[in-house]
């Protein structure tokens, strides 16, 4: 599932291979449109084996050990996909 809000994208998949391919395509960019991914704003909740040097500042771990992905002022629970407001900032 692909969500878009202005220039922010959120891709959710149960297939790690599919998510890794989507991320790889975004990382290459779209030269004909002068469109490139800002790696400082990128977030992943999984490791991509073949891509090194990617660190995500978009994943937040709650006090209870539950991980959330930050997106557009929201927290998205990485396990249940529940959405809540991000009041940490």
From TrEMBL:
PROSITE patterns: RT_POL. It is an enzyme of class 2 (transferase). GO terms for cellular component: chromosome, telomeric region; telomerase catalytic core complex. It is found in: Nucleus; Chromosome, Telomere. The keyword Metal-binding applies. Residues 1-76 form the Reverse transcriptase domain. One of its GO terms (biological process) is telomere maintenance via telomerase. Keywords: Chromosome, Magnesium, Metal-binding, Nucleotidyltransferase, Nucleus, RNA-directed DNA polymerase, Telomere, Transferase. GO terms for molecular function: metal ion binding; telomerase activity; telomerase RNA binding; telomeric DNA binding. Its EC number is 2.7.7.49. The keyword Nucleus applies. It comes from the Eukaryota. InterPro entries: RT_dom (IPR000477), Telomerase_RT (IPR003545). It catalyses: DNA(n) + a 2'-deoxyribonucleoside 5'-triphosphate = DNA(n+1) + diphosphate. Its main location: nucleus. PANTHER family: TELOMERASE REVERSE TRANSCRIPTASE (PTHR12066:SF0). Telomerase is a ribonucleoprotein enzyme essential for the replication of chromosome termini in most eukaryotes. It elongates telomeres. It is a reverse transcriptase that adds simple sequence repeats to chromosome ends by copying a template sequence within the RNA component of the enzyme. Belongs to the reverse transcriptase family. Telomerase subfamily. This is Telomerase reverse transcriptase.
């Amino acid at each position: 599932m692909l969500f878009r809000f202005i220039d922010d994208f959120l891709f959710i998949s149960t297939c790690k291979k599919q998510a890794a391919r989507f991320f790889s395509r975004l990382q290459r960019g779209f030269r004909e449109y002068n469109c490139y991914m800002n790696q400082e704003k990128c977030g992943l909740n999984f490791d991509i084996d073949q891509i090194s040097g990617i660190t995500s500042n978009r994943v937040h771990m709650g006090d209870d050990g539950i991980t959330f992905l930050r997106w557009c002022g929201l927290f998205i629970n990485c396990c249940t996909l529940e959405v809540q407001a991000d009041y940490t900032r």
